[in-house]
Amino acid sequence: MTAEILLQTLASGVLIGLIYALVAIGLTMIFGVMDIVNFAHGEFMMLGMYASFWMFALFALDPMLTLPLTVLMLFAFGVVLYKLVIRRITNAPMVSQIFTTFGLMILLRGVAQFFWRPDFRSIENSWVSGTVKLGAFQLGRPQLVAGAGAIVVTLAVYFFLHRTKWGAALEATAADKEAAQLMGIDSHKMFALAWGIGAACAGAAGGLLSTFFPIFPEVGANFILIAFVVVNLGGFGSVAGAFWAGILVGVIEVMGGLLLGPEYKMAVVLVVFLAVLMFRPQGLLGKS
Amino acid sequence: MNGKSSTLALGSAAALLVAIALPFVIGDASRLNLLILVLMAAQLGVAWNLIGGYAGQVSLGHAAFYGIGAYTSTLLLLKFGINPWLGMFAGGVIAALLSLAFGWSCFRLKGHYFAMATIAVAEIVQIVFTNWDYGGAAVGLTIPMTHDGWAWMVFPDKRPYYWIALGLLVLTLAATAIVERCHVGYYLRALKDEPDAARSIGIDITRYKQIALSLSAFFTALGGSFYAQKELYIDPGSVLSTALSIKMALVSILGGIGTLFGPVVGAVVLTTIEELTRAGFGGSGRGTDTIIYAALIIAIAVFYPGGLIGGYRAWAGRRSSRRTARGYEPQAAVHGEAHARDEALR
Amino acid sequence: MTFAFARLKVAAACVAVFLGASAHAQQEVKIGVIYPLTGAAASSGAEMKNALELAVDIINNGAKGITELPFSAGGGLPGLKGAKIKLVFADHQGNPQTGATEAERLISQEKVVALVGAYNSNVTVTASQVAERNKIPFLNPESSSASLTARGFKWFFRTTAHDDLFVRNFFEFMKEFEAKRGVKVGPIATINENTLWGTETTKLEAALAPAGGFNLVKQITYPAKSTQLTSEVQTLKAAAPKVIMQSSYLGDALLSMKTYKELGFMPDMILANDAGFSDTEFIKTLGKDADYVISREVWALDLANRNPLIKQVNDLFRSKYGADFTGNSARTFTGLMVMADAINRAGSTDPEAIRKALAATDIPGSKLIMPWKGVKFDESGQNVYGSGILVQIVDGKYHTVWPYNVASREIVWPMPAWDKR
Fold first, then answer.
1. What would the mean pLDDT of C207-220 be, rounded to a whole number?
2. pLDDT by residue (tens digit) across C275-313?
3. A118 in a domain, yes or no?
4. Which residues of C touch B140 (CB under 8 A)?
5. Could you say which of 1.25.40.10, 3.40.50.2300, 3.20.20.70, 3.30.70.20 is the CATH number of the domain covering C164-297+389-420?
6. In the listed set A183, A217, A251, which residue is the last one of a domain according to the structure?
């Protein structure tokens, strides 16, 4: 186990962690603003991947080019989903909410299989294919671009939340819905916005992933558990928390796999997660 | 016993008699199999309900107990020749003991955090079993058909399985009914309604939640052992998956969380929908059955947050309220039934 | 409803049932087929469904010009006076209990005379158990877990070779290769996914490598459906093997190949255990990066050079479904043909008669689209002639490279490094 291998693994861990972060940011926003755990979040990512794929397969447009379009489409989808379904359960007991988003998860997977068949798809030669040599290290270009993209989107969301009026309204609703309403902030608009941004972030992750990850209806299942762990670890509702927790989880996963055996890599993540839950349940950056 | 409870008791007894007699009437093995699946789902739902409904701690990792039950009895049988009835009991005890460890460390976590912790624990258990060679790892464990009969809990015919599943369900329901009516249930309801008031009187919250969780774990594990004896093959994916955990919760939520028969209703509806849609549409391979199944789950969740029983009671309540004034609310701790209805409507 | 009217209804119903019953007895043979039509293995399930439908179409309606293939004259099963085969599909969703439930349903309600399925070994375990209990023949064309034929079942028949044989093939091949070329292949590392299939393969490799005098330096098992395989590949790199033996389904196969490239890792030889590596998407996705991988297979198009029947049937498949056969779909097709052959010889739909006929099966290799010497079952229900081949991907196509007597080209060894392609 040379230093080179360790550092190389670390770098890969950070890169995949950034993707985890991007998926989790959407999830944590939805939770922070409306207190709903979205089981269907992995499916937003899956839809983003398919959107990217179809634009590539049908119109020969590179995923990097169509990324903004993918994000917009998923934003719209998130808002529509909110208006059609989620709006009705904002005040329902937690179990009903879980039940609903879980049903959505199965529904979206089923619909994806219905329309696009269960076959695996992939994008063979995008602009960002290939590897990049950085000194002694070799990293995949799609992963590097995806990592960079994740950082950009995170900054954008952070900026939006903390420097714009809409963002402030969102944060206010997250902090105290009734008080915000008294100030004239329409909760339903905020919820729709949160849901839209959440879906958009997952969609962005999907678009970035589509350049190197296989695309199939069940792909969301690979990521959803990790996304939950990241959200918890970072603190429900904290975008910055999700960002750093994502990177941390990515690193723990690859290092755990390297040191203890790949079959246990998820177990290592979960054990660390449980430990944090015991001693600091609000997560790294969550409010107590 | 007031009029309503005795009707309920009479009705339950009648239903039980009908249930016991059914296998004599239904000759078709696959229809009987469907009923067994319903009974199994109901039993798991009722077991889950003890902690998820009555104690208000939503667990999404109950498959851990199920799997521990299945693996304990199967390993004891295959490696040590221990009778599966004993093994089943042993599995239940081990699951209950493990639940103590879990409860002690996790009960102070609230709501979503607790749910996430349960998912994490169940996933870890699944990973451990997937990689544990002695326990069969991913290859799984097969129970041979060489010995059969009541002594070995292996039957070529479906009917004994049906009666055992029914027996397990009745046992779990009885345990729930006892909990509901004894001081444990009383305290749990108080904790759910007014946790601060309850604590201020000096009720040890954790202790009562722990009792509920241990019972829940025990009965869930029994269900796991039964599964192993019925299917004669277990692997980590079939008895330890998170999807299974969610299904156990779903059955209760769908039927009516925190009510005695809610999970039974939920199991009937959910299993029937699942099996009918798959039998009807599954063969096409388009996934139509999953779409229908999911749409129905969403519809029920959205329009009937109190589950089907909650929805029924709301409808019945609206009917009777035209006669009685709705202003009067009986004291929660005394009239468990009315309380459960209020819970369901929340 | 008056009494008279009621009696009329009952009478009409009886007539209908009688007519229906007698009509069915002559015209239809129902076979239940249980496959993963949704869930993780759904893409394989879809191509196997196509293979089944093609087989039944040929039997019922004929296939012009393919004279060597049994039943290509069409018109149903001659042994049952032209009774046509009707497939009843069921989706097991990759779940063993669902597989058993569907088997139960197909037997009791659909009244199928036989079952074919189920691809996933862990589902085959439970579904075939239901068949055994109900004394219905169960034919398994694709599951590779060796233990399936070690259960002492009387009603279970498997046409494909199993993992024990496939892994042995690898080591046999390496020995022959070393002898032929006068080289040593070097240290071996195995990387397998950790569900049932990968786990069994890992155990077999651990046992057979030292027995064959090979140096096994590392065994890695990884969780299927990972989001990344970095730690796995890094561990492999650190062990510095010259031969990798890998068992992965499609998603992981793609991910691992991309990770090998990303981390600049290229051993001399990759021996893949079929599944993901022989899926049509594998070459499509990786393009040139897939080249030089050697995979265990059960079927390859270039075998048509020795057996033209293979090309003829493949052309038919291609014209209907737009893709070539794969090892999976070819085996499924063959499985149904074997079942049809048995029912035909039995001359009846009585399960015991079908079972006897299956046990007596003896189909010569020339009538199959598989590279087997034939189909003949031993007492455990295993086809003794089931065998595997090895293919190597060169220039984006699969070429048979072993056994040497059916090889269509020389093996490229060692695999050129990534930057030298």
1. 93
2. 889 888 888 888 889 999 999 999 999 998 888 999 999
3. yes
4. 122, 125, 196
5. 3.40.50.2300
6. A217
- Shortest Cα distance, chain A CAs vs residue C47, angstroms: 10
Domain range for B71 is 21-345
Supply A101's token pair: 């988003």
Name the band, by pLDDT with cuts 50, 70 and 90, for residue C8: low
Q: Provide DSSP, A108-132.
A: HHHHHHHHH-S--B---S-TT-SEE
Alpha helices in A183-238 (DSSP H): 187-209, 220-234
Q: How far apart are the first and last CA of chain B?
A: 27
Structural domain includes residue A8: no
Rounded Cα distance, B299 and B296, in Å: 5
- Interface confidence, given as ipTM, is 0.89
Number of independent structural domains in chain B: 1
C283 at interface of A, judged by CB pairs closer than 8 A:
no
Q: Please state the domain extents for chain C.
A: 3-161+305-375, 164-297+389-420
A182 and A281 assigned to the same domain: no
Q: What is the pLDDT of residue B56?
A: 85
Tens digit of each residue's pLDDT (9 = 90 or more) over C40-85: 888 889 999 999 999 999 999 998 888 889 998 888 999 999 999 9
- In terms of domains, do A243 and A181 share one? no
pLDDT on residue B286: 78
User: For residue B299, what are its two tokens?
Assistant: 């519809």
* Cβ atoms of residues C184 and C178 within 8 Å: yes
Below-50 pLDDT ranges, chain B: 1, 325-346
In chain C, what residues touch A226 (CB-CB under 8 Å)? 227
Enumerate the β-bridge partners of residue C201.
none
Return d(Cα C145, Cα C151) in angstroms, integer: 12
A207 and A223 assigned to the same domain: no
CB atoms B283 and C89 under 8 Å: yes
Of A122, A128, A134, A209, which to mutate for an interface test with C (greatest number of C Cβ within 10 Å)? A122
pLDDT score of B264: 95
Nearest Cα neighbor of C118 from C45, C68, C226, C15 is C45
Tokens (6 digits) for C95: 């779940």
Render the burial of A143-162: b for 16+ CB within 10 Å, e for the rest. Answer: bbbbbebbeebbeebeebbe
